[in-house]
Amino acid sequence: MLKQFFQPLLTWYLAALKTAGYPAIVLLMTMESSVLPIPSEAIMPPAAYLAWTEGMKLFNFHFTGWPAEIGLVLAGAFGSWLGATIIYWLARVAGRPLLVRYGSYILMPPEKIRKSENWMSHYGPMGVFVARLLPGARQLVGIPAGIARMDYLKYSVFTVLGSTIWCSVLCCVGVKAGQDEQLMHGEMRHVVLWLGGAALVLGGLYYFFVHRHMKQKPEAGR
Known about the structure:
Layout: H1 2-16, H2 22-33, H3 44-53, E1 56-58, E2 61-63, H4 65-102, H5 110-123, H6 126-131, H7 142-147, H8 152-177, H9 188-195, H10 197-214
Helix pairs in contact: 2-4, 3-4, 3-8, 4-8, 5-10
């Protein structure tokens, strides 16, 4: 269902990469890091291969090779920070009661809010950094951070650091796997195959840092 819903957007994105360049990446990564479950694995690798082979545009400038890749990582990290900022301030301004009541309308049901709070209560500020590297946690971590009124500068620093590492990994995957035509069309299973050992490591991290703690029951009084 989600794949069918987002496929037109991803199709537009793959075409827009050649004309819009970095702004298209910023836009999609902002959406990915906010409330819309667009996988970054379908955003960064195709852009990385295009940047490596044909270059990437920014207004009237055209970058190729490593400068293009560095710009791509920066664009992805910036977009991730923008999306994470939206979630953080939404949670901080709205507060927990309002999010619990109306969060379902913006893809934040009470269960998702509870799980994200379990994560934050267990790992604290460092959890923001780890979350940016893990599927299923990237979009959630801003909710408890905002509700808890975590220092915004600290939240931003850990978000940018984690996002930069994750975008760098995806760019490396894109350059190495770019010969796979189906990868260039956003086929997620081909991205996963190319991740290989990295996917296993991330899966282990996800289990130990996310899955176990998100299954914890809410505290009394919640």
